[in-house]
Amino acid sequence: MKIRSAVQLDGLLALIGEQNVAGCKKALKDRVRIWVFRKEAEVNSERELTAEEKEFCVRRLASGEQWAGIFRRPESTPEPGVTYSSDHDVHGNRIGRR
Questions:
Q1: Which residues, 6+ apart, have CB-to-CB distance to 72 below 8 Å?
Q2: CA 59 to CA 86: how far, in whole Å?
Q3: Domain residues of the chain, as ranges?
Q4: What residue spans carry the region label Disordered (predicted)?
Q5: Which regions in the chain score pLDDT beneath 50?
């Protein structure tokens, strides 16, 4: 099920635990999309998930876990004037290699 509100999370407290509910509530405020599943059929019927996300959830449920979940962060928007590079951090400092 796609989580859209804190009320839905409160209903999942017994299943996913207090720490996970608190983390999900914070993530919702940051516009992270969250799904929580109890059954494989729920996973397979969800159209928004990628094949990899579905496979992850199905494998987790098949291993005997009571639930599986996916967090998807919103796409980041580049800041004007900032050039992103794998060699430099956002401040222009070189990372890693010398």
A1: 32, 33, 34, 53
A2: 32
A3: 2-72
A4: 72-98
A5: none
